[in-house]
Amino acid sequence: MIERAKIYAKSQRISLSKMIESYLDSLTRDKGNERGIPITPLVESLSGVIDIPPGFDYKKEYTDHIIEKYK
Description:
The mean pLDDT is 81. The protein has four helices and no strands. The chain is mainly α.
């Protein structure tokens, strides 16, 4: 099992000790939201990466992107 964990950690470009630390942190931290859905470490690491203005219409932006992509 340890060898598989080492291989997995290497494939994720993270040390095994950092992977275990992250896992233990995710177990012991209260990371819920109002719907009770847990927030994964990956999602949490992305939090705050971009600043979205109030009222941003992601559906319209995505639709515009798809229309432009397939012109």
